[in-house]
Write a structure and sequence with these properties.
This protein is an alpha+beta fold. The chain has 4 domains: 140 residues, ibrinogen binding protein from staphylococcus aureus domain (ibrinogen binding protein from staphylococcus aureus fold), CATH 2.30.310.10; 79 residues, no CATH class; 143 residues, Orthogonal Bundle (Helix Hairpins), CATH 1.10.287; 110 residues, no CATH class. Helix content is 37%, strand content 22%. The protein is built from 12 helices and 23 strands. A 6-stranded antiparallel sheet has the order 16-17-19-18-20-23. Strands 4-3-2-1-5 form a 5-stranded antiparallel sheet. A 5-stranded antiparallel sheet has the order 6-7-8-9-10, covered by helices on one side. The two termini are 44 Å apart. The relative contact order is 0.07. About 2% of the residues have low confidence.
């Protein structure tokens, strides 16, 4: 319910009391789907942070917000210096607006994956934060307003169509009513429950609740709340932080679970291959038999023969033995003896590999069971670093590396595997003089070119690494992608930044075609 009409109704009451007469001093973005507005009110700064991701849109109101010196861009320039005269919710819609001193309106349209922030100016084309939502250019704020009567007469008139008529309740409220057996009650009981819920929505206490689907914000008197708030601004800010933490954990958890399952499958395949080969070697020792037969019949084998047929010592069955015609029968026998010895060495090696693979499989299955008990991101990162390496190469490693690695003209290029791994690569596995690359303005992998003392970075190596940075980003399908390049020492992380989010200085940009390894 973090984007519910009744929440915005309460929020606008708070914001109007807080911001009326305040002056907008900054409006900027330093991430593709984030807008930050700073309002100067009563000699202090008030921050509004709008995060409009495709999977999640939410407002928050942090007490402090440090703007990056680089990689941030001013937006809605006409807002600067304007006074907020009114903050008002749009009736029965998930939207509200600031009425400004120039008579312009800044609309916050919080419609799920179509959320946007739009500046309406008299006689001018609307200015959009998310420009790809071109339908918003034709949007009329007045058309968002919906007339709904929350009276008993309207309730009874729409008794068979309640969800449609009272759409501002939203799906979470109707889910709550269904959990109260709303559909099984008679008309009077339904109205009483409906009226109770309506009262709670209009006089809310904000609760953050966490269930199987993750954290959610509720305006209803639900049990088992993690946190309870009296102010909408405080509730939204706490919920925003909790949701982002939960989302990052779930994403990394799913990736880790997939990696463990894949490693188990690879190890089981390896065990099958090793066992098959070991069975083949244990079934017979043909090389030893060939050598013994050749030594027993040296006097009968013609020089230069390519093959000889000799009887088996026990059964007399003909045994076909291939020979090297350039070698004597005795030398051919020596080769077969050596192959027999090598077979024993191979058996010992296979047995060692097989024992190691069984050990790894046991460890992975334990890890798979332990994964179910992990509840936070720090535990998950420690868990991932201790995963055993398996697969057809079955080479053990001390810990999982947060990057994949390629070599380009002798230069090592490292590519981050995830948002959390990006941080580890940049700040734990890179030197200050390494070259750092990242696709501009979109999520993607950090890419590092390892510095070699006394050697400049070749242009071809930089372009190839930039192609990899473009490929491992949200721009991989574009024909050309801008890629930022700077030395690692000019990349830093601020307190409060999300995993993978950094601030970059002294960067330059090149355009490359995204291309995989």
């Amino acid at each position: 319910m973090h984007n519910n009409y009744f929440l915005f109704k309460a929020l606008c009451r708070e914001l109007h009391a807080e911001l009326q007469g305040g002056v907008i001093s900054m409006c900027f973005s330093q991430a593709k789907d984030e807008l930050v507005i700073q309002v100067e009110v009563n000699q202090r700064a008030f921050f509004i942070r709008a995060l409009l991701l495709p999977v999640f849109s939410c407002l928050s109101f942090p007490k402090e917000f440090q703007r990056a010196r680089k990689n941030s861009i001013d937006l809605f320039g006409e807002l600067i210096g304007q006074k907020i005269e009114k903050v008002e919710v749009i009736e029965n819609d998930r939207s509200f607006y600031f009425r400004l001193s120039s008579n312009a309106q800044l609309l916050f349209k919080m419609h799920g994956n179509r959320s946007n922030i739009i500046l309406f100016k008299s006689g001018a084309t609307p200015e959009l934060f998310k420009k790809q939502l071109t339908a918003d250019l034709q949007l009329n704020p007045d058309a968002l307003c919906k007339k709904v009567n929350y009276t008993r007469a309207a309730f009874e008139e729409n008794l068979n169509n309640l969800k449609t008529y009272f759409a501002p309740f939203g799906k979470p409220v109707w889910n709550y009513l269904e959990g109260q057996n709303f559909d099984r009650k008679d008309s009077e009981e339904k109205w009483q429950l409906f009226h109770q819920v309506l009262h709670e929505l209009n006089h809310p206490e904000f609760r953050i609740i966490k269930d199987q689907e993750g954290p959610r914000l509720s305006l209803l008197n639900e049990p088992n709340a993690l946190q309870t708030f009296n102010r909408a601004t405080d509730a939204l800010t706490a919920f925003h932080a909790l949701w982002l933490s939960h989302y990052t954990f779930q994403k990394e958890y799913a990736q880790t679970g997939h990696s463990v399952s894949r490693a188990i499958g690879e190890t089981e395949t390896l065990i099958q291959k090793l066992s098959t080969r070991l069975n083949e070697l244990n079934q017979e020792d043909a090389y030893r038999e060939y050598a013994d037969l050749l030594m027993a019949h040296l006097h009968t084998i013609e020089a230069g023969a390519k093959e000889v047929v000799l009887p088996n010592f026990i059964t007399g069955t003909p045994v076909h033995i291939k020979l090297n015609p350039e070698l004597s029968p005795q030398k051919n026998a020596e080769i077969y003896y050596r192959k027999s010895r090598n077979r024993k060495i191979e058996i010992e090696h296979l047995q060692k590999q097989l024992a190691e693979a069984h050990h790894n499989l046991h460890e992975l299955r334990l890890q798979q069971a332990q994964l179910k008990n992990i509840k936070d991101l720090k535990q998950l990162m420690r868990f991932r670093n201790n995963l055993p390496a398996t697969g057809d190469n079955h080479k053990p490693r001390a810990q999982r590396l947060p990057y994949r690695e390629v070599v380009v003209q002798g230069f090592v290029v490292r590519i981050g595997r995830s948002a959390v791994d990006n941080d580890a690569l940049t700040f734990k596995h890179a030197h200050k003089n390494d070259l750092w690359l990242h696709a501009r303005d979109v999520p993607g992998s950090h890419v590092i070119i390892r510095h070699q003392p006394g050697k400049p970075f070749p242009k071809e190596v930089i372009e190839r690494a930039a192609q990899l940075a473009a490929w491992y980003s949200k721009r991989k399908t574009e024909s050309l992608c801008p890629v930022m390049i700077t030395e690692r020492k000019y990349v830093r992380k601020r307190k409060g930044d999300e995993p993978g989010q950094v601030t970059v200085e002294r960067e330059r940009t090149i355009l490359v075609e995204p291309r995989a390894e």
